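Lay summary. Proteins are chains of building blocks that fold into shapes, and those shapes determine what they do. In this project we predict the shape from the chain. Here is one chain we studied, written as its sequence of building blocks.
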Amino acid sequence: MKKELSKEYTVKSNKITADGIISFKQADKSVLIVKIKSGTQKAGEVTIVVATTADKLTDKEVKEKIDVMFKAKDDKKIASTEKIASVSVSVSVTIAKKIASTEKVILSTVKINLTPTNDTTVDEVIRALKTVKGLEKIETSDVDFSKIEAIDIKEGSVTITAKSTSKLVTGSKSWKIDELGIDKLSN
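And here is the predicted shape, written in a compact code that computers can read:
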């Protein structure tokens, strides 16, 4: 998404009427977009919006003069548009270093092929997570690992929770460990 930079200016002149035609004269290679703010043209004044996007600025600061022109609605002469005001516009942008995508992966949305058992380790979970796009560099230092072992009559679980210091992940994810059952104990 491109960040739009805009500012409003109110232009006052006794020549402006509510039904006249406002136009603008700008530099040939202007990076600015000028338009009338909807519903603001009335007798004696109009509000204009001057805008651009940061990606169009090649310099940290742009200074331009915009001439605001007016023509009465019923005036048929082409050359009768007259300058009613000049607006000096200065746009400055602080250009920051772009950082690689900082959006974290939400662990609860991750789909991996993992069937945990009582023997499952944090390293196994990390290996499985590394197969997910965006988590190729995940390490054990990114998550807390906890395990509740299953018993013959109760299921257990494996849970990973993102550490607040992780730059890759957020949230948590749990997997259940099936209860062992009597038949599984006899093996």
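What the prediction tells us: The chain has two domains: 4-92, 105-185.
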